[in-house]
């Protein structure tokens, strides 16, 4: 963290050289995977640490909590303490997100955004299970209520993790066939058993091969609501086949983008 006028004088100073901090968005399965496999490949950037942001409420949903409707009051499961739902979400979705980051050889710090309704037992449980699942550290973050002071522990944890040895690697070689690159992402990142291509998708892949685009990286277009293509499937779905309904190319931008499901 760089010191500046926004920091009060009693804040500790951290002299950390930061080359780049990126908010990749939409989880390790979408934003991070694309950042690593596309942007890092093109730019030469090499990540030192992944900060995986989580909330108790989201983990409860992934642990089997009821659906949430816009405009309707939150079900009591999300406002009352429920350690069973928290544990279920941590041992499924959070664990899988950590594993995805580790596929690339990068350490993970879990940043738990703390809300007013979260209990101390729930916060402690998330941090405990996150570290059991392989996170280098897991830190409650109180910036919502305390401003920058509420994220000092996160800064310390990120600094420490960023100085540990890494073994960053891409998920696939771009010289792999387009079909195999898509299958690799589907199986290793999403947890699918296999992929299923529509006739149109197969035809497009054949065309791109003929045009010499087969070495472009892959930018999957998929729902952010699930690790799978099914928005209502929370946690860490398995035993599903990922449907690819179309495959398109952004040649100028430099990637192939399959359309997953609807």
Automatic annotation (TrEMBL):
Enzyme class: ligase
Keyword RNA-binding assigned: no
This protein's UniProt keywords: ATP-binding, Ligase, Nucleotide-binding, One-carbon metabolism
PROSITE patterns linked: FTHFS_2
Matches recorded under Pfam families: FTHFS
Enzyme Commission (EC) number: 6.3.4.3
Pathway: One-carbon metabolism; tetrahydrofolate interconversion
InterPro entries, sorted: Formate_THF_ligase, Formate_THF_ligase_CS, P-loop_NTPase
Residue intervals passing through the bilayer: none
Name under which the protein is recorded: formate--tetrahydrofolate ligase
The organism's taxonomic lineage, starting at the top: Eukaryota, Metazoa, Chordata, Craniata, Vertebrata
């Amino acid at each position: 963290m760089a010191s500046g006028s926004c920091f009060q004088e009693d804040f500790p100073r951290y002299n950390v050289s930061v080359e780049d901090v990126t908010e990749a968005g939409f989880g390790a399965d979408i934003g991070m995977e694309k950042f690593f496999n596309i942007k890092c490949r093109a730019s030469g950037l090499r990540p030192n640490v992944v900060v995986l942001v989580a909330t108790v409420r989201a983990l409860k949903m992934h642990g089997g909590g009821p659906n949430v409707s816009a405009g309707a009051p939150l079900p009591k499961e999300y406002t009352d303490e429920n350690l069973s739902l928290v544990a279920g979400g941590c041992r499924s979705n959070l664990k899988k997100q950590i594993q995805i980051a580790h596929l690339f050889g990068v350490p993970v710090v879990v940043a738990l955004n703390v809300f007013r309704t979260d209990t101390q037992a729930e916060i402690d449980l998330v941090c405990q299970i996150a570290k059991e699942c392989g996170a280098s550290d897991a830190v409650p973050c109180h910036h919502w209520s305390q401003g920058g002071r509420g994220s000092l522990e996160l800064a310390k944890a990120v600094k420490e993790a960023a100085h540990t040895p890494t073994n960053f690697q891409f998920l696939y070689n771009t010289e792999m066939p387009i079909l195999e690159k898509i299958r690799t992402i589907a199986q290793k990142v999403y947890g699918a058993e296999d992929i299923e291509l529509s006739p149109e998708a197969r035809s497009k892949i054949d065309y791109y091969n003929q045009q010499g685009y087969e070495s472009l990286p892959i930018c999957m277009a998929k729902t952010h609501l699930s690790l799978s293509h099914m928005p209502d499937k929370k946690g860490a779905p398995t035993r599903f086949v990922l449907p690819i309904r179309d495959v398109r190319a952004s040649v100028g931008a430099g990637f192939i983008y399959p359309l997953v499901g609807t």
